[in-house]
Design a protein that fits this description.
heterodimer, A: mainly alpha, two-stranded antiparallel sheet, 14 helices, about 0% strand, globular, B: about 525 residues, alpha/beta, Rossmann fold, 3 domains, 6-stranded mixed sheet, membrane (chain A), transmembrane transporter activity (chain A)
Amino acid sequence: MKDWRYWLAEQRGTLLAFGIFIVMFTIYTSNHPAGFTANVVQTASNKGVLLAFVAMAQTLVVITAGIDLSVGMIFTLTNCLASWLVIGTGIETAFGVVAVLGTGLLCGAINGAIVIYGRLQPIVATIATGAVYFGIALLLRPFPGGSVNEDLADALTGRLFGVVPASLVVLLAVVLLVWVPFSRSVLGRAAYAAGSSEMAAYMSGVPIRRGKFAAYALGGLLAAIGGLFLTFFTYTGDAAYASGNAYTLFSIAAVVLGGVSLFGGKGSAIGAIFGALAFRTIGDLLFVFDFDPLWQPLFQGVILLIAVSLGAFALFRVRNRLEWFL
Amino acid sequence: MDGAVPLFRMEGISKRYGGVRALEKAELSVTPGSIHAVLGENGAGKSTLIKVMAGVVAPDEGRMMLDGSEVTFASPAAANQAGIVCIFQELSLVPELSVADNIVISDPPKRFGMIDRKAQRRIAEEALARAGAADIHPLALVKDLPLSRRQMVEIAKALARKPRILILDEATSALTAADVAKIFGVLKRLRSEGLALLYISHRMNEIAELADQCTVFRNGRNVASYKAGSKSDNEVVELMIGREYSHIFPPKPVRAPATAAPVLEARKLSWTDRLDNISLTVGAGEVVGLGGLDGQGQRELLLAFFGVLRGLSGQILIDGKPVAIASPAAARGDRIGMALIPEDRKTEGLMLPMTVRENLSFAALDRLSRAGIIDRAAEQRLIDDMVGLLAIKTAGLDIPVGALSGGNQQKVVIAKWLMRQPRIILLNDPTRGIDVGTKQELYQLMRKLADQGAAILFYSTDYDELIGCCDRVLVLYDGAVKRELVGPEITERALIASALNIHGEEMPVSLGADA
């Protein structure tokens, strides 16, 4: 049987991202003054997990051949909301978490409804909704502030059994509870099919609209989990425009690094997670090598360009030049 | 088969696309346990008919009866539910998904709300085996399979849906002979299991081997139904033609055989599996037609001349000298002077939101500008000439070209290229979807350009046009030139016979009276 070869081909993007991450992270920890310690891993994972959630959110939408330029703003909005609601007694905190996640889901659902039923292009629709979400975030938190249930925050950003970063455990749980069921459900397959060839999917009687809607809505939910973690990490809410935009753009970079095709239909959220972790580590590498932080954007940009160029090699094989434009 | 209760009946089905009648009160009934062949030439309405049956297109009028009660299908999914499954000519497979994913895509097996991959694998393996394609691995991605294997997956996918009525639209066109034999075995077995099969094909020998019942379509109507084998090939061709010949074509000049070197020549052009050793010549002042069924390599041949295809083998000669045409920009350059009027004017010919003026001058900007600055006066003069020459009806030069009628849009595409005064003009089915009046103007124009010395290569799916416009016609079949028809040899009968790859010699002379 050569089943494993098909599996390998399917997971190539994910494995490549995993490889890049491992190499980067090894370089990082071996040059870190403290070395490979639980503390270093915990800090890295807390930072990485934020982008990982947003990248997962982006993946779901990109799979349908769409793009969500509002993920960063949903992330910011839910951060601001959490800094009001995720506080107080256990019951109150639980209610707050549910409300924050529900808000993210709603934001994603609105995106999906506009794109699918309003037939607007995803790029335009999500720029507009992103601005709206940021506007609401700004009303919630005109100035940075607020607070969060610190017991919960410390538990989820700390370590389990003294070694395992809790944030990584949560990330794993989200993968198992959201991504795995989605990718193996009929809706998930509909999302992939719609992204790969919407016409063929329609001809085959696939529930395209429901699949795409689910992808957008779950994308909102995942961005909200990211926003929640940002609150746990910083103890405050901050409607920071630059940070929201940066997360949106970084999520696209992470998705591409993770082997998810921007043309849709191909890739996995797990790849995007490693893409996100690798992308974060690229930034951190500069610190251990004592580079001026001013170099960081330039360095990240170059690495990203190289990674993306790898995907362009397929164009050399095209024999009908008109296919370049499809 | 007479007297058997029809499983499915279509009555008085009509469908129009804009002003074009695709179906006109068409009737069809299929009975269980039989293979029903549907025949007709390009544009006879066969494709629309099965699209209506499969729920892709809603008919304007008429009704469909399944098991004696009326049904309507809002979507392909609804038709599937009713047991009608169609294997389309354009494949309906999702390229990035695996074979198994694709086979179960309409109704995947589920376990705890998730897709049961083991069951999916089993269903896929069974379906592939039933289709005689057990060599295809269920985990392979569809996009990695060659076309013939994809077609087999398509058939397996249809079988996995347990159809009562299976429609095959040119389903064997991409298959190898060995696969065709396998598929025929499968189809005959399905017939004996009581399925109703609808088989659309241009290949007469396939129909002779498979069909129990045949229906011929012409101009959107079913013109004849007969028991398979009760009519000869010639009678069938006769039924498929039966159109009135319209005298809208300009007279052809009486020509002496060309002595000068041809302007455009191809020697042994081959490209992937679409072009097979094509050699041809087009002389100055000559209109050479490309005939044959849709999709036999005509489009690729034109693209090959225009520098779009990579990895082309063989030689292209201009004025007797070999040239390498690396891109459309090189093809249109002064040395070669070629123009291609594309088939799909909306995507390949025009920028719809831009103005008539901008569209007209795009291809000629390099000739109209000096040091990168456009000479507006020269542009205006040339545009005025073209609008006059082609009688383009537009409210103004500065309105979006998308606001014009289809015929006038096509005139803009042609005018755009004429602004470069090309010596070689390639036309890819230029009259598709435009009105008769404009067609007539284009025929006149084509002849006028030829008389002025242009070499014209003209692909058309409309046999009347080839007969009326061309000095010679090359009929393509499976990427190769099957037959060359010169002057009075260009008859509808000869065109259809060679397009179907039937030998012309078998055609009785008594039928050849319409030229």
